[in-house]
Amino acid sequence: MxxxxxxxxxxxxxxxxxxxxxxxxxxxxxxxxxxxxRHTPLMTLLNRGVIKLFDENNSLSDKIAVDGGVAxxxxxGITVLSERAEIIGSNSSNKQILEEKINDLNLKLKKPEIAExxxxxxxxxxxxxxxxxxx
Length: 135
Known about the structure:
2 domains, ATP Synthase, domain 1, alpha+beta, 46% strand, 2 helices
């Protein structure tokens, strides 16, 4: 039996990440939750935080910021559903893309007709969180 478990991270727009991992650490509503193969099936709410994926050598391979959501852990693997999620990279191009998105949202929010748009404000707050975690 394989020691790997598949994780799928899904937003309303895309399947952001699909990968076999040795362990996934999720930002559960009751604290961080480590999930490996043969984990007890469960569903849990997620807080805003960072999902950490570990490879077969127990090395951190990926970090994905999620804006809360739900995780379904079953024999088939882990499915994370989140309204917003971004892959956190340590390279400068990833940070530059985040900064450009933040600048675009700030410009949009300066327009009086959309200055109070809660969705845009939530997106801006989440992108600032992602940028902070990528530093």
